[in-house]
Automatic annotation (TrEMBL):
InterPro entries: Emycin_Estase (IPR007815), Hydrolase/PRTase-associated (IPR052036). This is Erythromycin esterase family protein.
Amino acid sequence: MNKLTFVLVIMTFFIAETFAEIVGEHQLSPIINQVNKVDIKRTDNFDDLAPFGEAISDKRIVFIDELTHGEQEGFALKSRIVQYLHQHQGFEVLLLESGLFDVQQIWQNKKTAIKKSAPGNIFYMYASDESFIELFDYIDSKREDNPPLVLAGFDGRLSGELSRQHAVNFIETQSKKFLSHAAVPSTINSSIDLKFDWRFYKRYSQEIIERQSSLTDKNLQDNYIKQSYWLYDQLNNINTLETGYESAQYVARLIHGIIRIAEVMWGSRRHDEHDLPMADNVQWLIDHAYPNKKVIVWGHYIHLNRQGAFQSRYDNLGSLLDKRYADEIYIAHFSGIQGSYREFRDLSVIPLPELTNTEQQQRLETALLPYFNSATNNKDELRDHNSALFIDYKNINSDRAQGMMMFGHEYNALIPVNNWNKHWDGMFMIKHLNPSQ
């Protein structure tokens, strides 16, 4: 290539890039009135998160979702946001999509680092991720602070090793203690002639937690569910001085989770009805275990969005708690534009869908791309590959966004931009995703 040709190529490239940025900004500005660029990993300065802080300033509960459970930059940014919420916004509790019993057992064990107890107990997509390990170290380092950042789980499926080893015995010991010296209202199950059988209950509860139930007879299954609900009702209606994890109601929460595992295994409940005990657990944690505390809830989009389960609109955790707490909740959504993620079911790497030319013209993700090159919030230029955009729904120009779509559940569904507030309140859009470790 001679010198003249080289110069022409460089000029053509520069003009094309400049034109693309001008067109991009022209398309973007009518659709979104304000976009804030944020760093993904930086923790020595949180100034770029100030607009997010303003958006959640009057909220007591902040949901931070994820579309796939497998996005490296998503985990990193959310970990950073947790630290920001703790240090600068007064949030004191992190509720994680992991076992209610397992995480509490880990939190009580102050002698062992969370990252050492996490494998096999905390959800496996979290337990081994680098950003999560750093977050666990941060939480451990704040145990003696005032206030600390408390870690708790809200999933009722009790899938960790600690649940398999100890949950059933814990339920028996605690239940017998409460039932032996607490007055049980005579109205509970008064129409059911039931002789509770601890040997029967323990044997099959253990099998259910291990997902190996040998109960195939419908009558025996019904008997197990009947006995489980009888014990659940007794404990849930006991009034004692104990509160939080020391209460009879905590034991009832564990029983409820096992009931739902059994019902789903035996086909009497939909798979997504695990959300109902999860919602009950989060409500109990907020109202009883950590009353008057500001709480972060970290989990999958399918649980945390306020529209309900994908397409079906059956109630999920988000829709149920939105009815309960309404104006106290802010749902922050996390999504990507390009790259790939790790599928949590089989650990394969899945690329984000490539958009056709027609799709690009109708997609918010495409309209946002130029903003990564043009927007900064501080003196230090944020690196293009290590940044995201925060957008609050109030800054969407609904008229100009008419007909525009964006990625929804696991990048397979689409959501109209004008309807995103039916699912969440604000969004962090990450330019490029890599699979979690």
